[in-house]
Specification:
Structural class: alpha/beta
Mean pLDDT: 88
Helix content: 25-40%
Strand content: 15-25%
Shape: elongated
Number of helices: 14
Largest sheet: 8 strands, mixed
Distance between the termini: 117 Å
Strand order of the largest sheet: 9-14-13-15-18-12-19-20
Oligomer: single chain
Length: 464
């Protein structure tokens, strides 16, 4: 066919089709190759990425993709860590950044990323993992190219703590009053009633939204917590973020961070939010695994220095924000290995939290629940949210408890003569009432006003 036989319309159609084909092709294709897998670390060459950027690794044996995140780099090598299991990963596997065209048999395809439930009211009543992916089978996940990232508020613009939070736990309401916007630590060893106290706080706290982060817990406990500890009313206002112990350290760390972002979003919408993270220690352990895999030197019981920078970075996002309406109160559990109160994570946590509640194994062994050690516990903002009369009454009861504990052996041996010490006489006389006051069954709810009234009654009786 001669060129003169081609009509102007056919030529224009051909040119337009070629332009459309060129426009559909990517301007560039970025890809790398797996160089080495060392433990949890995937070393990639030929693909420079920034810290926090996500990528996907082709798993040809399994016929799927492994989602990962850049956690470091050295010269031409990029270090990735996968969110999920890497079983079947082969040498030289192709690695693509997200939103980059991938050369496939049917042309170029683009992988968008991990589909998660968007942060918003639709999360209420849901159970998701540390990346926001639904675990309850209710769907609703979607992909977004603009993930929410929350920074710590300007410290000079934060709303001050001035309003008490009703926790529904008598010992906390009366002796360790918590303010809306406070960050409290629950310090405990294993088997002293930590989970039961958390369930009481979840059900009884007077708040609009409860966000629970189960970080590094056993999978069995996640199911039991959702089924046994959350009633219908609590579930309707709760968001459960579960990152069990069998997930990667990156997924566990993301669990605490994602739950913090969820709680922060609801706070900025003017809601009164309570965040419960169980546990801060397992978050630190996950960060330890990440740091050690990158070759960081351990400085304290195997923890690298970066861990002690990650803890305040996580905690400082929590608290009251710049808006006057909402509040965000947090309870972080801290596991004491071997009941050692000088554990490095415990020491670091006490420095960044606004108070700590110690659970005593001795009290738990004696059947005293919740096993709160009043002597070792403190709420740093209690004077700001409680009346002077309330503070003095709590101080008086704490003095009586301390006086009784220090003289217990002497009284048991019969070496004390009544009338010698008026404070000890009052402690011995009121000890059964104090014990009853500080104990509470898990199904009971003690409101703030009633707790303060009962405390005042005992304090007045100590002066008679």
């Amino acid at each position: 066919m001669k060129a003169s036989d081609v009509s102007q319309a056919d030529l224009q159609h051909y040119v337009d089709s070629q332009r459309a084909k060129l426009a559909s092709l990517p301007l560039s294709v970025r890809e790398g190759r797996v160089k080495r897998v060392s433990g949890l670390l995937v070393e990639v060459e030929g693909l420079p990425l920034s810290i926090g950027a996500q990528a996907c690794v082709e798993n040809s044996r399994q016929g799927n993709w492994v989602d990962a995140e850049c956690i470091g780099f050295e010269r031409d090598t990029t270090f990735l860590m996968a969110f999920d299991q890497m079983t079947g990963l082969s040498p030289g596997a192709v690695v693509y950044p997200l939103l980059t065209p991938q050369r496939r048999a049917k042309g170029y395809q683009m992988r968008q990323g991990i589909a998660s439930v968007p942060i918003g009211p639709q999360l209420l009543g849901r159970v998701v993992d540390g990346l926001g992916r639904p675990l309850d089978g209710l769907g609703g996940a979607s992909w977004s190219d603009n993930p929410l990232r929350f920074a710590s508020p300007n410290p000079l613009k934060r709303k001050t703590i001035h309003e008490p939070l009703d926790t529904g736990v008598r010992a906390i309401n009366a002796m360790l009053s918590v303010g809306r916007g406070q960050r409290m630590g629950l310090f405990a060893g294993s088997g002293v009633g930590k989970s039961v106290l958390l369930s009481m706080l979840t059900r009884n706290c007077v708040a609009d939204v409860i966000v629970i982060a189960l970080v590094g817990e056993r999978s069995r406990e996640v199911r039991e917590f959702c089924d046994d500890q959350l009633d219908d009313a609590s579930r309707a206002r709760a968001v459960v973020v579960a990152s069990p112990a069998d997930t990667s350290p990156l997924a566990r760390a993301k669990g605490a961070e994602y739950a913090t972002d969820v709680a922060t979003w609801f706070r900025d919408q003017g809601k009164h939010v309570v965040l419960i993270v169980d546990s801060l220690t397992r978050y630190a352990m996950a960060q330890r695994e990440i740091g050690l895999s990158l070759g960081e030197a351990p400085v304290a019981r195997g923890y690298p220095a970066s861990v002690f920078g990650k803890l305040p970075a996580l905690v400082e996002k929590v608290g009251n924000g710049e808006h006057a309406e909402g509040s965000l109160t947090a309870f972080y559990t801290v596991l004491l290995e071997g009941d050692d109160v000088h554990d490095p994570v415990a020491d670091a946590a006490r420095g960044v939290l606004d108070g700590h509640i110690f659970l005593s194994r001795e009290l738990a062994d004696a059947g005293h629940y919740p096993a709160i050690d009043i002597e070792k516990s403190i709420s740093r903002v209690m004077p700001k949210v409680a009346s002077q009369e309330h503070v003095l009454a709590a101080r008086r009861i704490k003095q009586l408890i301390s006086r009784h504990e220090r003289s217990r052996d002497m009284v048991a041996m019969g070496a004390y003569m009544q009338g010698t010490d008026p404070d000890l006489d009052a402690a011995l006389r009121l000890w059964p009432h104090i014990q009853t006051f500080l104990q509470q069954e898990s199904h009971q709810v003690a409101d703030l006003e009633g707790s303060i009234t009962s405390l005042g009654t005992i304090a007045k009786a100590s002066k008679l």
